[in-house]
Amino acid sequence: MRSVSDRAAGLLSREAIRLDARATGRDHAVRLCGQVLVDIGAVEPGYIDAMLERERSISTYLGEGVAIPHGTNEGRDLIHRDALAVVRFPDGADWNGNEVTVCIAIAARGGGHMEILAELAEILMDPDRARALREAAEPEQVLALLAPRAQEAPTDTKQPTEQGHTV
Known about the structure:
This protein is α/β, with parallel strands linked by helices. 37% of the residues lie in helices and 18% in strands. Strands 1-4-5-3-2 form a five-stranded mixed sheet. The two termini are 18 Å apart. The relative contact order is 0.21. Mean pLDDT is 83; it is low at 1-5 and 150-158.
């Protein structure tokens, strides 16, 4: 089985990283993230609506200034290929009362959707890596943060998010 970061790193390209975005709020931020997925050819434009629908049903805010917007199960038909996009909001974006500075948007067709969410949550539970991601100034820094770390030992420790989900 691939390590925690293997799959996430393989889905993120330099072209899908935006480090200086501005958003007026949660929905605007989700639209910007979805548009990056559209721009790289991973999804149809309608996937953005599926991302907004997911956000309205359950928040994708993880804590530590990070959200992981993704579409609903019904939106999977709008996905051409699995991909990630990283969008940083240096000035923050209001996410229903929480400040988000980094969004990792997810497009996943198959059963790996929850696996990707869990992998990203594990990466972001490391306060040093989460801080480095929030402060990244170059796409290469983001790619390195999400790259596999050889010294990581497998772990079965599950952590609850601020929403009470166990990831």
